[in-house]
Design goal:
This protein is α/β, with parallel strands linked by helices. Helix content is about 40%, strand content about 20%. It starts with a strand and ends with a helix.
């Protein structure tokens, strides 16, 4: 099998590439414009085994089409996207162009080149701000009503996939709606946690990444954006999933599509932690008490969002290994130290 991984030098894409290189003999082609991915990450992946890297932006439509043709691609794993919610509110056109338009063209290229399996990196942001939170979390049938352009750009891409599959009987897809992805490569050397890859792009906006930078002394302080939400301690509640568990789901998705129809899956642990709980956990596992200030809410942030992951566990037999907030924080911290 020949697999194209877009955004494969980035945070989530690189962890999927790592597992593909470690656990399969597939030919891997990584496409990335290196806007947030890094050569350091590619170098680390190259120590596992060989793969092909192409530096290219997805907006280069003709070149993307040629890559699929020349490399005889069978499956696309699509991670390349803009992902910062506040930025999407300030600059929506960037998100509709980079996420929706580029994804639509990639799907078009896939159909033209008879690539019949497409695995798409979507987001829980498609659910928006739930008017109520079901006891078991939000499932895949929950109303999709994004409250920011990031979520809407992903939902529009989902619709393109769904309609394409209806029109093209040989084309199948898996859509993963990610909840909050965090942590770094769970790699142990001499019984010490030593991640080889992690979240490396600058000016990160993810909570656990920022907290780990504070614990390492890379930042002097951090802020909690909003302490007046309708939650147990007033701060936002999210479902955090370790990036290696997320990556494993993509490997299983390729196997799943061999004998099953297209589908949509939430990917999270089904358990919520508040911003305050995450910061306290980071301070505990690192033994560092860094400065935390309060700040106003950010545009587009819902109060709480937790997954119902029953469907992926039942239908895909996905079994997470790292459902542990302490490990998520610890692996992120150890990556920052390295």
């Amino acid at each position: 099998m020949n697999i194209l991984v877009t955004g494969g030098a980035g945070y989530i894409g690189s962890h999927v590439v790592k597992q593909l290189l470690e656990t399969t003999s597939y030919t891997i082609v990584v496409l990335d414009n290196l806007s947030t991915g890094s050569h350091q990450t590619l170098d680390s992946l190259g120590k596992v085994r060989d793969f092909k890297f192409i530096e290219l932006d997805l907006k280069e439509f003709d070149s993307v089409n040629m890559i699929l043709k020349e490399n005889n691609i069978d499956t696309i794993l699509h991670f390349a996207a803009s992902i910062v919610v506040p930025e999407s509110v300030e600059n929506p056109l960037k998100y509709y162009l980079n996420n929706t338009v580029n994804t639509t063209n990639l799907i078009n290229c896939a159909v033209e080149n008879k690539v019949n399996k497409f695995i798409f990196s979507s987001t829980a942001a498609v659910y928006g701000e739930p008017t109520y939170l079901p006891l078991n979390g939000v499932d895949e049938e929950f109303l999709t009503k994004p409250i920011n352009p990031y979520g809407m750009s992903k939902l529009m891409s989902e619709k393109v996939l769904e309609d394409t599959a209806k029109a093209c009987s040989d084309f199948k897809y898996i859509i993963f709606r990610y909840f909050n992805v965090a942590g770094a490569d769970v790699n142990y050397e001499d019984e010490q946690l030593k991640p080889r890859i992690g979240q490396s792009f600058p000016n990160a906006t993810h909570l656990i990444k920022i907290a780990s930078e504070c614990a390492c002394g890379k930042r002097e302080k951090m802020a909690i954006f909003g302490n007046d939400f309708n939650t147990k301690d007033g701060t936002g509640v999210r479902d955090y999933i370790h990036v290696d568990d997320l990556a494993n789901a993509h490997i299983k998705a390729m196997e799943y599509l061999e004998n099953n129809s297209s589908d949509v899956f939430n990917i999270g642990y089904g358990q919520g932690y508040s911003v305050k709980e995450v910061i306290e956990t980071m301070q505990t596992v690192t033994s560092v008490k860094f400065t935390v200030n309060s700040a106003p809410r950010r545009a587009g942030d819902p109060a709480a969002l937790i997954s119902d992951n029953t469907k992926i566990k039942t239908k895909m037999n996905w079994k997470p290994k790292y459902n542990n907030l302490e490990l998520i924080c610890k692996s992120s911290f150890e990556w920052e130290k390295r």
